[in-house]
Amino acid sequence: MPKKNSPPQKTDSSAKNKANSPITGFRISNFKAFAGSQYIPIRPLTLIYGANSSGKSSILHSLLLAHHAITNEGELDVYRTKAGGDSVDLGGFGQYVHKRDRTRLVEWAIDLDPSNINLSDKGLGSLLEPIKKLTVGVGIGMHSSENGGIKVRSFFLEADGERVLDMSSRPKGRLQLDRLDHKHRIISPLIEAIIEAKTFKLKVTPQEEEEIEQVIKILVPKITAQVYSFLPSTIQVKNSHQANIDSITPVNPQNRQNTLADVIRLFIPYRLNDIVSAITQTVESELEKLRYLGPFRAYPPRHFAFSRQQDANWHAGGGYSWDILLNNAEVRNKVNAWLGDTDRMKTPYELRERTLLPDSHLEHKLDSLLTKSLHDFTVELVFHAAGFGENIQEEIERIITDLEDTGVANSQFWQICCLKSAVDSNSYSLMRYFFPVCIITVLSRK
User: Fold this and answer.
1) Are 112 and 283 in contact (CB under 8 A)?
2) In the chain, domain spans
3) The model's pTM
């Protein structure tokens, strides 16, 4: 509606009022319209535009796929997604993989700001301080050893574009570590910190570096992770029961039985688990917040407050946006700021919420009106009974016919039918049988 007031003030966009998302972008390949890798940066407001059939919907559908896997125990061969409802039908893996080539891997990756990842260990947080961007990604495809089931087939972790580790699928939903760059800017300081804390050595000799390299080479294929939804979690050494790290005391350098290799074998999987688990939890918690408003093709009715009983496609079809605007004053104010700001949309409109009748008042009015109507109707029937005498059955049949014309099932006013056979000229009998019928009929049509 046209607004009478001046344009609303700009909303406060200071840092303290903004919830920083760790997600800064994502990329996809071999997904629907895209064969090669497509990168999409994410900002507080991201606009995607292009010609018809250029892949705009494919970008959104890739996020819906990830959201569905996270919230539905890793289901990837999906048709209708949880967030998309009837508006989005991915058609299963055979439809959303590029060119329907089931031998391909759909690749999905996401960029994160390390400063917004919650690491419980401050020491690990300090290792990520020099890193500007973390990237984690998965490959989705058919697993030949599991009756063609669609699984996460691969996983990788990068820091500032440099690969840290790679994992690939094994039976029973496990991923196995294929490569770990122990000289990477994250892993190398991590190893040094472990050695310093557990062996009192402040510097590693060239001979010990060779020993560490050999230990890691042997250790890597023994490290596995389980994928329960979309990204791996619970990294551990295969066929090994992890010791309680907190109960281990620093190694005595004079005790040759506790070698440097033992420390590496024990602590590297433990620390990798801390890092990967924190990243997985961050990504999944952010994607769980995804709400799909759908194609914006739903217009609110004139009296929107009375349109709450919608079909299953209401949210995904665009209706959810109107629910938000009606119930969330903060969002409504921000939309109005954009609508009226002279540096933005420059429109003469604003969204207003008007309460036409409070719920409490409405309930009171309906109750009193209903009570009065039933009372008046009953009194009128009593007078009819007294006036019509032997013709009362004809009057009752007329009432039944009128009720049938409304489309209400006959079974809902069976008491009137009973009254037909027991009718007499006694007005008390009519009161006794008909008054409950009025209540039932009104409630059934509410």
Assistant:
1) yes
2) 15-287, 297-356, 361-444
3) 0.66
